[in-house]
């Protein structure tokens, strides 16, 4: 998928529009599966990264399972044809009733707090459960995406292991998996390997394990020359540690991961049209036909997305601040060096496959954009652009008599 293809997509489907390259998703999946040479490898794609049903069907065709955090994601996976046994459900702070509804659907349950664990074990001791451990390891590229530290709301503290074991013993429940997720954008595989040792130690307390799930958090590059997780090095080192643990444990277990961003981030491009070039006393603004209602990551996480003027690729670069049409602070990039931008040009944002459309909203009553999948050399519409009818579809209008007064 080249710049000419992207321009054709913007022309055919309008802007703004999200575009995903199926070949990149497939190559990332293959790279990951080739890095870990274990007896059984389970890859569960983190649905929250990009939940379009066509993306789920593509990953399912590769043999990938799903990591879900809500009953709706579980249902989406099943609708996409993923077998419930290949879906792991790891909620946070949900009701026992929702967890029990997921049980009926047949997904693997993963519980991350003692209260729900005790309630679930008391009511359903025969249903195997995975436990999410908090290893108290600070890892991740941003405080908002670091989830394994001591102040995190996620997981059961490793220091609560005696209490956890009492619950398991008293309820007679069966623990078939143990899990952790320390954060996203992990650069130092040493941190990941350190956390794995903590998880191995915790796993020794359970005798019926079928798998150990290391979550994910693998970093992808956001710009040319950027650092990324060395997945091959991690695969070699963690495979060795995992195989040694399995020998000590007495049988082969499955090794599981839950990549989201790693699989889809680099596949995505977000295309937007330039509405206006605005020169002020200090800045040249390129105002585009979108905002943080469609792509909130730069404002929310401070994330970096490379911005390219695909309408004028050979132009002399100038410095621009690229901004959206939302009335609050809505800046995608300050003082970016981009090929000269003209009104009407199409800008392409890279790394738009993960946590981009899935976090889009109707703020300012704007329509959410279309999604397109580039597959086998062709553009396929996988989500229609919203319409005004979509905005009002679920609203219930009241009628008021302007002549009456409220006493």
Automatic annotation (TrEMBL):
* Subunit structure and binding partners: Homodimer.
Query: What is annotated as the active site?
Result: 327
What PROSITE patterns does UniProt report for this protein, alphabetically? Answer: ODR_DC_2_1
The protein in question is named Diaminopimelate decarboxylase
Which organism is the protein's source? Christiangramia salexigens
Q: What is its EC number?
A: 4.1.1.20
InterPro entries to which the protein is assigned, alphabetical: Ala_racemase/Decarboxylase_C (IPR009006), DAP_deCOOHase_LysA (IPR002986), De-COase2_C (IPR022643), De-COase2_N (IPR022644), De-COase2_pyr-phos_BS (IPR022653), Orn/DAP/Arg_de-COase (IPR000183), PLP-binding_barrel (IPR029066)
**The organism's place on the tree of life at top rank:** Bacteria
| Ranges for domain Orn/DAP/Arg decarboxylase 2 C-terminal | 18-353
Q: Does the keyword Amino-acid biosynthesis apply?
A: yes
Q: Where does pyridoxal 5'-phosphate bind?
A: 217, 355
Instruction: Cite the Gene3D superfamilies for this sequence.
Output: Alanine racemase, Lyase, Ornithine Decarboxylase, Chain A, domain 1
Entry's Gene Ontology BP terms: lysine biosynthetic process via diaminopimelate
């Amino acid at each position: 998928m080249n710049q000419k293809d992207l321009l054709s997509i913007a022309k055919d489907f309008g802007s703004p529009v999200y575009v995903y390259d199926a070949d990149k998703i497939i190559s990332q999946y293959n790279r990951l599966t080739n890095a870990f040479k274990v007896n059984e490898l389970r890859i569960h794609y983190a649905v929250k990264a990009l939940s379009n049903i066509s993306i789920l069907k593509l990953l399912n065709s590769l043999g990938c399972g799903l990591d879900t955090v809500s009953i709706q994601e579980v249902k989406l996976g099943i609708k996409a044809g993923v077998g419930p046994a290949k879906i792991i459900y790891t909620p946070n702070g949900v009701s026992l009733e929702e967890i029990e509804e997921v049980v009926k659907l047949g997904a693997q349950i993963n519980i991350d707090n003692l209260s729900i664990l005790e309630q679930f074990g008391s009511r359903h001791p025969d249903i195997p459960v995975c436990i999410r451990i908090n290893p108290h390891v600070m890892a991740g590229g941003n405080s908002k995406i670091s989830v394994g530290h001591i102040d995190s709301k996620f997981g059961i503290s490793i220091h609560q292991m005696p209490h956890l074991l009492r619950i398991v013993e008293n309820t007679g429940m069966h623990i078939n998996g143990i899990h952790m997720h320390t954060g996203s954008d992990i650069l130092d595989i040493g941190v990941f390997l350190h956390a794995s040792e903590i998880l191995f130690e915790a796993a020794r307390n359970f005798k019926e394990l079928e798998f150990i799930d290391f979550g994910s958090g693998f970093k992808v590059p956001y710009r040319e020359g950027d650092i990324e997780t060395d997945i091959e090095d991690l695969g070699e080192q963690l495979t060795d540690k995992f195989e040694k643990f399995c020998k000590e444990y007495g049988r082969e277990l499955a090794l599981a991961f839950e990549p989201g961003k790693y699989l889809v981030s680099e596949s995505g491009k977000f295309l937007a049209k330039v509405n206006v070039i605005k020169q002020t006393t200090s800045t040249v603004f390129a105002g585009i036909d979108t905002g943080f209602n469609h792509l909130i990551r730069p404002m929310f996480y401070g994330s970096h997305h490379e911005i390219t003027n695909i309408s004028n690729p050979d132009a002399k670069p100038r410095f621009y601040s690229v901004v959206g049409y939302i009335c609050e602070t809505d800046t995608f990039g300050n003082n970016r060096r981009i090929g000269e931008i003209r009104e009407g040009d199409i800008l392409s944002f890279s790394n738009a496959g993960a946590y981009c459309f899935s976090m889009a909203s109707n703020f300012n009553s704007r329509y959410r954009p279309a999604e397109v999948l580039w597959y086998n050399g062709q553009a396929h519409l996988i989500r229609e652009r919203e319409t005004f009818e979509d905005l009002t579809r679920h609203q219930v209008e009241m009628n008021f008599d302007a002549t009456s007064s409220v006493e």
